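A further point concerns the way the authors explain their paired sequence and structure data. Showing the layout once, in full, would remove most of the difficulty. For illustration, here is how one protein appears when written out as sequence plus structure tokens:
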Amino acid sequence: DSCAYKIQQLVPSARIVTAHGKMNEEQRFGVAHKERLKEMKHNVDVLTLSATPIPRTLNMAMSGVRDMSVIEEAPANRHPVQTYVLEHDWGILAEAIRRELRRGGQVFYLHNNIATLERCASQIAGLVPDARIVIAHGRMAEEQLSNTWKMLMDHEVDILVCTTIIETGVDVANCNTLIVENADHMGLSQLYQLRGRVGRSNRRAFAYLTFQQGKEISEISAKRLAAIREFTSFGSGFRIAMRDLEIRGAGNILGAQQHGHMESVGYDMYVKMLSEAVQEQKGEKPVSSIEAECLIDVRVGAHIPESYIGSLSNRIDIYKKIAGIRNEADAMDVTDELIDRFGEPPKAVKGLIDVALIRNLAIQMDIYEISQGEERITFYTHSLDMNRIGALSAKYPGRVSAGAVDKACIYLALERSETILELLREALVCMKEAQDRMEQGEAGEQGEAPQTPRRAKPVEKKATSAMERALEMQKAMTAQKRASAQQAAQRQARTPRKG
């Protein structure tokens, strides 16, 4: 009696989910289905299994909302499926079918249109007259469909012309050639699942993903086909899902959308905000990256021209890599990659890399904005450091000033013969060296051995004179503030009152 046993596990179809059950392949279900399952019992643990998780689920795992494990062990005695993406050509496809039949195999031919399925089967029969061909689709009667599968498993059928009904749950070890019509109409995960119907034995399998001759496919479709052709090794489902995430976007965690881009804030900012929220929920102190930013507004060419990298996705990828530059070694790695992939970088790209290095150096100096004016450069900082100002004054006599009325900032006057990026680099390095000397001096006062020995008296005298100039500047700034306050008070006193 089935009622006498407690159900431990139920693996149902989508139809069962809508009534009273659980699911198998996560990527084939909507958010409403999955939320309904969670509502059946509040203390249930959910385990999601999928070879190609949807962008929303993958993004939640990558962001820390869900835990994730990856199974990468390949099946024994299997070979990766040889994948071809090409225009539909009956000559090539007929030869592929004959080659499979000659070695005693069977063929899946996917024509995803029930209305023209029989016509397609007749056309294939004309090209391969000796082949035994049957059709299969979802509108067939259950008994008829069952007989078709039985004939296929008993090797009574050479070619199965079918719809996407074979996408899941089909395991025919002797079928090792797959032909898909209009592959550009299908999703990346769907193509990966279809390709998995072949190559389920120790024989080499082939997949032909075709599109109409002379058709100009969309950019997104081209990316999908390029990805399915690129990722052919075992365990590439995760990489396929990651590429799908890049193409389609991450979806909406709090809503029903399972893909789509966060157009208002951008994906990178969205992931940062989400990571901080997850850390707060876990009781961890989020590491905010708001302070660790520096806006650089200077008049130099700093971008990737379309003439240098034509693909938009490749340009975005290189922009991300340049934004991740932290030191000279990172810059050299990115430059080497650019030369290897696209040739010698133009001046604008080199400028972009220089700006990335300058930005990182400025962040270390607690500078959050650098702006170029007509006659001077302004460094906006959270607090004024007299050691840095003194070091700059020594390096650029008569050109350095500071202010702290509205924002703390350091001014450096420009000269016509100077290159702006080189000047910024030298100025920031100068401030960094002053900061390092100060930190080493503090370490020496605390009894720690400084990393560099102390210099002779002339160098100490130079540092002392720089400090004196910095103290004088500080006194002048204080006097300027007092004078401004007195002038404001006098203006207010002279203003006649309305009575």
